[in-house]
From TrEMBL:
It comes from Erpetoichthys calabaricus (Rope fish). One of its GO terms (cellular component) is cytoplasm. Pfam families: Pribosyl_synth (PF14572), Pribosyltran_N (PF13793). Keywords: Nucleotide biosynthesis. InterPro entries: Pribosyltran_N (IPR029099), PRTase-like (IPR029057), PRTase_dom (IPR000836), Rib-P_diPkinase (IPR005946). The lineage of its organism: Eukaryota, Metazoa, Chordata, Craniata, Vertebrata. This is Ribose-phosphate pyrophosphokinase N-terminal domain-containing protein. The keyword Zinc-finger does not apply. Belongs to the ribose-phosphate pyrophosphokinase family. CDD domains: PRTases_typeI (cd06223). GO terms for biological process: 5-phosphoribose 1-diphosphate biosynthetic process; purine nucleotide biosynthetic process. Gene3D superfamilies: 3.40.50.2020. SUPFAM superfamilies: PRTase-like. It comes from the Eukaryota. One of its GO terms (molecular function) is magnesium ion binding.
Length: 331
């Protein structure tokens, strides 16, 4: 990397005043030559994305040597796969960022690691797991009596990684909360009324049975244990609340939820406060101060240190491998 001797500059989007604190922490850690505000995410994500694109393009047309986007929570990361005939919005956003002039991205815990393949420039996908593991060890009394719980089979690899490093047991929740009959009677699952189409007589497609998940069951013994649910995103918390109820019924006496990104949208704070969950621990990749005022159960872990170190290493042309030591692919 050709490093400019004059140092680097930190620019920030202006979408939300909540970005100021993380910006201050990062600039204090990295001690850049000039500092500004840093925006990890705001309520109006489209405004933040557009502002980022405009800023990147302005820097590109001003002949900046490198333009590094620090995006702790990558927006639209859940829309990274094609569902039916829908579009892959995450791929579109990656193309827009490249076109605007970004040359490098620093992010944290992408929803799917394969998202890195959408980009034509380097992407450093940092991990929050060391900070969350440290929180478990230092802030959860008697954590040795805990068991790591995967909210679904798809989250089992992440949960297994946590369990192995903490030397704890593993449990997996399978199935989903059953809907009431009144929720199913609105006709949303009815087939659309279309004209009958003629099928070619030689074409006979096999009929496939519709997928139906059973009620939630727990694979593993959580009786008399502290249950720690781990995931990457906490957004709509209905699934976590339902999981906490099942774990409580199975004998878990304390329930924690650990995740990197705390979107905590809609009624999430109220639902958490009224649930069997004892604590929801998330990082400061997304501002959530308002949610914390609404729900004292929400706790925050600061990850500004690793973001600042990533910026410094990229600027100085140093290896990023140090930031991934003892990090598994499944985190």
């Amino acid at each position: 990397m050709n490093v400019a001797k004059s140092g680097y500059r930190v620019f920030s989007a202006n979408s939300s005043a909540a970005c100021t604190e993380l910006a201050k922490r990062i600039t204090e850690e990295s001690n850049p030559y000039a500092g500004g505000r840093f925006c990890p995410g705001v309520k109006d994500v489209n405004t933040a994305v557009m502002e980022l694109l405009v800023m990147a393009y302005a820097l590109k047309t001003s002949c900046a040597r490198n333009i590094i986007g620090v995006i702790p929570y990558f927006p639209y990361s859940k829309q990274c796969k094609m569902r039916k005939r829908g579009s892959i919005v995450c791929k579109l956003l990656a193309s827009m960022l490249a076109k605007a002039g970004l040359t490098h991205i620093i992010t944290m815990d992408l929803h799917q690691k394969e998202i890195q393949g959408f980009f034509t420039f380097p992407v450093d996908n940092l991990r929050a797991s060391p900070f969350l593991l440290q929180y478990i060890q230092e802030e959860i009394p008697d954590y040795r009596n805990a068991i790591i719980v995967a909210k679904s089979p798809s989250a089992a690899k992440r949960a297994q990684s946590y369990a192995e490093r903490l030397r704890l047991g593993l449990a997996v929740l399978h199935g989903e909360a059953q809907c009431a009959e009144s929720d199913m009677a609105d006709g949303r699952n009815s087939p659309p009324s279309v004209k009958s189409t003629t099928v070619h007589p030689g074409l006979e497609l096999p009929l496939l049975m519709a997928k139906e998940k059973p009620p939630i069951t727990v694979v593993g013994d959580v009786g008399g244990r502290i249950a720690i649910l781990v995931d990457d995103i906490v957004d709509d918390v209905e699934d976590f609340v339902a999981a906490a109820e099942i774990l409580k019924e199975r004998g878990a006496y304390k329930i924690y939820v650990m995740a990197t990104h705390g979107l905590l949208s809609a009624e999430a704070p109220r639902l958490i406060e009224e649930s069997a969950i004892d604590e929801v621990v998330v990082t400061n990749t997304i501002p959530h101060e308002i949610q914390k005022l609404q729900c004292p159960k929400i706790k925050t872990v600061d990850v500004s240190m690793i973001l600042a170190e990533a910026i410094r290493r990229i600027h100085n042309g140093e290896s990023m491998a140090y930031l991934f030591r003892n990090i598994t692919v499944d985190d």
